[in-house]
């Protein structure tokens, strides 16, 4: 029996899929959650809250590795919250003898004027390693999959609006990646010596402007989506606009909108040497996300935002 692996954030959009993938390949998974008694997925639920360092004592004992898939974007003080949580988690991982931490961060050029969200992701990368445990970082842009916040913004904008009056960020370049491919990378770097202490960029094969992404989703759904950029639409107004036409809350929307001013594309392809496979294209990722949503809703359920 191999040592267990802890997944912090194992009930979220990425984490729940990762837990399922690890369990399917026979990994002993501990799912860290604030509500273990209500957890009914694969693996073993353990209580822990990164915002409460005392609750982390013992949760990683005996674990060979730990995934960190936690953020506080819905809070105004997310930067300080995430910094404190990452430091506490890294120190506890070291105290528990964990040999590897795997973190899913965000793409973006360090020389750019990064948004608060992306700066926070960079800080978390560093703080997770303060205890001395080697950290493997996977940096991604837009993750395309049913239930993901960035994807839901894209889908809901296309489906809820006959036309879009948009801010300048619709011309920013990004490199979206399918959630299935994110999971393949996350699983692939686990216990991989060549991944220890390294930072990798991950993305799909398509580099697209946000406007292109929106229009390609519209085309797949058989819709037309005229887009009219308005340079004076500020980030604050953009986030309120997103909250009005999607079900993303204003704070989370603002933090994500700020990041949309930054180009987020893959600059280093070395991950392909460590976890070699061909990622799927954007259109295929969109079709899978829409199919998963359709399967969840079922043939007789009403429309849901």
From TrEMBL:
Annotated NAD(P)-binding domain residues: 9-147
* SUPFAM superfamilies linked to this entry: NAD(P)-binding Rossmann-fold domains
User: Could you tell me the superkingdom of the organism this chain comes from?
Assistant: Bacteria
- Molecular function as annotated in GO: protein-containing complex binding
List the PANTHER family hit by this protein, alphabetically: NADH DEHYDROGENASE [UBIQUINONE] 1 ALPHA SUBCOMPLEX SUBUNIT 9, MITOCHONDRIAL, NADH-UBIQUINONE OXIDOREDUCTASE 39 KDA SUBUNIT-RELATED
Q: What is the official name of this protein in its record?
A: Uncharacterized protein YbjT (DUF2867 family)
